[in-house]
Task: inverse folding
């Protein structure tokens, strides 16, 4: 049975409030707080998300990983934040027409920086690992 976006929403997944023009264009991406307090990000991959070889485009996966960075760190976010650094490693190809998920953890939190790592997967297959630094931005 193929999972749909409607299934995600019915299962309690949601999107960020407001809009992010680029993520809205390539997504939609969703997140859900799990019973253990962690967050899972998810989307349903489509043919429009693929590269010339028919597998998920690396740029899409990096965009989803950036979304997941902020979802993983959601409980630490207050005010305006930006991605300060980002690293990714492609592990295997990702298919179209699949549930793509991301999970991870905040490895360190300071007053102005959050260090996050995670992985993107479908089923038991890890597609990409990533890490990043999120910086709190002073609003003037």
Result:
């Amino acid at each position: 049975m193929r999972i749909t976006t409607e299934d995600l929403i019915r299962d309690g997944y949601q999107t960020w409030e407001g809009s992010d023009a680029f993520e809205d264009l390539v997504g939609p991406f969703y997140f859900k707080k799990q019973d253990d307090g962690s967050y899972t990000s998810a989307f349903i991959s489509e043919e429009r998300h693929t590269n010339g070889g028919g597998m998920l485009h690396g740029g899409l996966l990096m965009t989803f990983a950036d979304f997941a960075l902020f979802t993983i760190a959601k409980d630490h976010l207050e005010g305006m934040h930006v991605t300060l650094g980002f690293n990714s490693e492609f592990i295997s190809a990702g298919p179209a027409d699949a549930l793509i998920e991301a999970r991870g953890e905040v490895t360190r939190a300071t007053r102005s920086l959050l260090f996050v790592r995670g992985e993107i997967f479908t089923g038991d297959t890890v597609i990409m690992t990533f890490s990043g630094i999120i910086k709190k931005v002073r609003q003037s």
Observations:
- The helical segments are 5-10, 21-26, 58-72.
- Residues 5-137 form a domain with the Thiol Ester Dehydrase; Chain A fold (CATH 3.10.129.10).
